[in-house]
Amino acid sequence: MTTLGFIGSGHIGAQIARLAVANGYTVVLSNSRGPETLAELVEELGPQASAGTATEAAAAADIAVVSVPLIAYTEVPVEELAGKVVLDTNNYYFERDGHIAELDDESTTVSELLQQHLPTSHVVKAFNHIRFDQITTDGKPAGSLGRRALVIAGDDDASKATVATLLDEFGFDAVDAGPLAEGWRIQRDEPGYVAGYRTVDEITADLANAKRYRDMVPNEFGTHA
Asked: Distance of alpha carbon 91 from its chain centroid, rounded?
């Protein structure tokens, strides 16, 4: 049985874990506060779920899900994730994470930073542009008319195919944005980011209409529009 290991089990991680268990996967959860704080979630998920440290979750994982605040990405275990597919759900919020120069000047992207930290893993950006509460409600069976689509990005085609299959099992179509360097197209302030229900055609158009921050006009809140 395939195991998903969760480095971070908050709003997003917990929702993906619920889908994983519902689709027959084993899950190992972790967070920064210790396995004992995940007892309630483990009880809810049942015998297919357990909790451990981040290192234990990474070691147990066939596929890992990293869902921690960006400021903590360098704490993600490295050796235990070697050779594994790693889903990165993260986004950059300077209000929470502090300013990161390479992201502010757009010389890299969130998932590229994680890939640099995990040089022997296969990072795939996924689940970063859907509200957490919709992860377990918006999925539909394969072939459903108007099925919701989610974006993936990654540098390894086989790993992206693995994640696309996972998304399909979870009820979503996958739209490939290309390599990790193109992940900016679905980040905060872009048309497809937390934009509600999007089909393949709609999210593909959102990706095409994305603009670099340097080409946007800052609004009164200090973000872009």
From this structure: 9
Strand-strand pairing, 149-154 and 122-125: antiparallel
- The CA distance from 37 to 202, in Å, is 39
Residue 131, Cβ density class (10 Å: 0-12 exposed, 13-18 middle, ≥19 buried):
middle
Strand partners, 34: none
Q: Could you report the per-residue pLDDT of 100-112, keeping only the tens digit for each?
A: 999 999 999 999 9
Enter the tokens of residue 135: 């992860």
pTM above 0.70, yes or no: yes
pLDDT(225) > 50: no
* 202 vs 221: which has the higher pLDDT: 202
